[in-house]
């Protein structure tokens, strides 16, 4: 069993005495066009994503969306989209991608998810790496998110974690053919080398390989 990454100090700079706002005020600020997360009552701005980051996010969102639509599983949401984990975590994060099963859509609000999604995906950048591998790893584990993917384009490295009965994440490697099989998106598998192709394969091509008729 692989050891989970240890929490690291976030690369995000914060004021020594940050202004703290209620969650509702944080949501209102997002409606004005900002992209940020809410951490212990403080609004933490997020850096813009790179073009490569955006391409991988769009590729995964397209493939997953078509797959869950065809299988009636139910919805995939792409950032910017706020996830507010259960109490006592006073946090609201914006994963790059989340999947929510049909039987849990009652958690969905107009502008955010009130609770843990079934899958969270973070595509790292130099600015977000320590936060995604540290703070968010610990938070997502504590929130009970069943599956967490960490995709690192700069290192062409992918990590897949599945929550165990003891409430801890376990690293689950891709199989001998380089294929990772999800535990929460029923029947879904990902050929990891797809993520590193330039250009990325078309969502149509991948969906067909997954057995989805478009």
TrEMBL record:
Keywords: Endonuclease, Hydrolase, Nuclease. InterPro entries: Nuclease_put_TT1808, Restrct_endonuc-II-like, Uma2. Pfam families: Uma2. Residues 23-193 form the Putative restriction endonuclease domain. One of its GO terms (molecular function) is endonuclease activity. The keyword Hydrolase applies. The keyword Ion transport does not apply. Gene3D superfamilies: tt1808, chain A. This is Restriction endonuclease. It comes from Caldinitratiruptor microaerophilus.
């Amino acid at each position: 069993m692989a050891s989970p990454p240890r929490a690291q100090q976030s690369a995000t700079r914060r004021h020594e005495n940050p202004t703290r706002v209620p969650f509702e005020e944080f949501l209102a600020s997002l409606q004005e066009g900002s992209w940020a997360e809410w951490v212990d009552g403080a609004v933490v701005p997020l850096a813009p994503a790179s073009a490569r980051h955006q391409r991988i996010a769009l590729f995964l969102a397209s493939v997953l969306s078509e797959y869950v639509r065809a299988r009636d599983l139910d919805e995939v949401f792409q950032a910017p989209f706020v996830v507010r984990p259960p109490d006592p975590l006073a946090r609201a994060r914006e994963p790059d991608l989340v999947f929510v099963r049909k039987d849990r859509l009652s958690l969905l609000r107009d502008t955010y998810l009130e609770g843990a999604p079934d899958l969270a995906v973070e595509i790292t950048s130099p600015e977000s790496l320590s936060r995604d591998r540290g703070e968010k790893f610990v938070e997502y584990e504590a929130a009970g998110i069943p599956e967490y993917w960490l995709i690192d384009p700069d290192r062409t490295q992918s990590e897949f974690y599945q929550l165990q009965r003891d409430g801890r994440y376990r690293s689950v490697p891709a199989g001998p053919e380089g294929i990772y099989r999800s535990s929460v998106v029923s029947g879904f598998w990902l050929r990891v080398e797809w993520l590193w192709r330039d250009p990325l394969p078309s969502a149509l091509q991948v969906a067909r390989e997954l057995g989805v008729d478009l």
